[in-house]
Amino acid sequence: MSRTRKIAAVAIGITVLVPTAAQAATRTVSAGPPQKVKGLPPGADSNAFFRKTITVHVGDKVKWKFNGFHTVTLPAKGKKPPAFIGLDPAGGKTAGVNDAAGNPFWFNGLPKLTLQPDGALPAGGKSYNGKKLVSSGAPLGAGAPKPYTVKFTKKGVYSYYCTIHPGQKGKVKVVGKAKAIPSNKANAKAAKKEYAKVVKQLKKDGKFAGPPGNAVYAGKDTIDSTILAFFPTTKSVPVGTTVTFSMSPKTTEAHTISFGPADYLQATADGFIGPDPANPAGLPVVSSLAAYPSDPPPTLVADGSNHGNGYVNTGVIDGDAASPQATSSQVTFSKAGTYNYICLIHPDMKGSIVVG
């Protein structure tokens, strides 16, 4: 190579390297599946971040793309993530909720449930140094969720969470600018490899026949994989049988088991989260009709005529030991018939109990 060409090559090298060192980079993480894969069972999903641990330089940004209903919530370093749903901070009570026969439900007078400001709504801006909470909030508006970008301004290892799905967690490692970090291409390759393990689990769990005995699983999940379906979808039992509906032993999800007319259930599901009729400008509320059991626990009895239209609801159950919700619920079927049910949180989840 001639001396002139060597000088030119050095000059080109400088123009390439200097901007890279001077400009902040952006690394991308997927909240939910990073790609579409054929051959998955119906209802297959993943409540995980891909790549689960991302490394950036001080001053770099991380952009999360949402492939599902998630939040990206970074608490102050060392703090636990806030709750997504909880008691109304204003102390409101459930009121005026009647069944199809016009009778008030038993849970009137119990606390009103709302989305929680730090766990469900945007907070803290778009720059993070570990000192205060920063959150995307939940994608409550219409249309596809917009990406969420945060600039990291201090070295450290920071955990972040989806407040909607307890157990869904990721990490951001922030290092000095002189340290080498994975490229976007390397991160995408790692994310694909992580998701391949989830896909393998989903295909295995999709073949699950259901638990033994008079039991139904709401979902077949691990911490990273979830199948939004009931196992088994249809179960036949004798009159008088008590069926136990349970969450998977490891799950990040929450469900209801709700019986009644299809249109009534769909309308209830559509209103699971909405404006507070008593305070439209306040926090969004969670439907008491959906969230609370239709009758006082522990055991519900279904005969096809409950509450004027056959409505029987377990209320929300989940797999989080720290939450006030149960991990299972029982329903006794006292009359012959076919009892169809859905999950009011995920209304595409459908099942039936055939009693004879």
Blueprint (SSEs and pairs):
Layout: H1 3-22, E1 26-31, E2 44-45, E3 49-50, E4 53-57, E5 61-66, E6 73-74, E7 85-87, E8 113-115, H2 117-120, E9 127-128, E10 134-135, E11 148-152, E12 156-161, E13 169-175, H3 184-205, E14 215-218, E15 226-227, E16 230-231, E17 234-237, E18 242-247, E19 254-255, E20 258-259, H4 262-270, E21 273-274, E22 285-286, H5 288-291, E23 299-302, E24 312-313, E25 317-318, E26 328-333, E27 337-342, E28 350-355
Parallel strand pairs: 1-5, 4-13, 9-11, 14-18, 17-28, 23-26
Antiparallel strand pairs: 1-3, 2-15, 5-11, 6-10, 7-8, 12-13, 14-16, 18-26, 19-25, 20-24, 20-27, 21-22, 27-28
Describe the protein's architecture and organization.
This protein is an alpha+beta fold and 356 residues long. The chain folds into two domains: 3-193, Immunoglobulin-like (Sandwich); 204-355, Immunoglobulin-like. It is built from five helices and 28 strands. The strands form nine sheets. Strands 3-1-5-11-9 form a five-stranded mixed β-sheet. The longest helix is centred in the middle third of the chain and has 22 residues, at 184-205. The chain is globular, with a radius of gyration of 24 Å. Residues 1-22 have low confidence and may be disordered.
Keywords:
28 strands; alpha+beta; 5 helices; 5-stranded mixed sheet; Immunoglobulin-like; 356 residues
